[in-house]
Amino acid sequence: MRVLIVDDSPAMRVFIRRVLELTGLDLESVTEAGNGREALTILQSESIDLVLCDINMPEMNGEQMLTALKQDGISTDACIVIVSTDATSKRVDRMLGLGARGYLTKPFSPETMRDTLERALGTAYA
Amino acid sequence: MLETISQLESCLQTAVISAFELMCFTALEPAVEDTECSDGILRGEVEFEGDAVGRLRLEMPVIAARSIAADFYSAEPDMPQNQVEAVVGEMANVICGSMLSTYAPEGGFCLSTPEVGVGPAERYPVRRCFHMESGPVIVSLACKSSSPHPR
Q: Any idea which fold A2-117 has?
């Protein structure tokens, strides 16, 4: 599985990568982006299966990235899962409504991450 | 206002313990008495807006921050100071988001980018103290105002 981690915090990208490795999911590659705009560039040039995306980021946030994917008709088969501290129902519903297939609330364990990703991805990568 | 602070305080302890356990694989014990960090303090601070408005601060001795940063990154504690500071900031951010999500699960909030500083700072009115193996952890809150309908 080819994964893209999108977060403006280098520390959080390291942490997410680390927990991802602990899930036991089959990882072919892990790429990183610091905001939604960088992520869109990568999604247009690389084949990505899973995007783990923060919401609050400079330049282009997670919500703007999801909107851009829809509006600009960027073709990607990537499954997008939001990773955020915000677990309020309003925020979760909004992000899922914009096309995210899963929502992972920080803090999370490797087990919670695996469950969320398996649900979002279906059985293809389980 | 007092009710808001009381409700936030009740959400805070769970948020702190859970964040340290899941992100730094570190067990925290609530302290019975108020604690002070003696010297070499590192603090991360986040401003929040939404159903409640205020600031949350996480502070601990630098040596304790190095210990949790090592667990966060799964690395040795002799990492550059900026990496340690980034972890303290991220932990403040996660604790604050977790606390607010429990406080008003149907509401919404915005968090500022975490600020990290060294040394003592103005004391906030609500304080929760914890012990971990490498030193004390103090999380404190200041509320400016709140929505009339927090839930």
A: Rossmann fold (3.40.50)
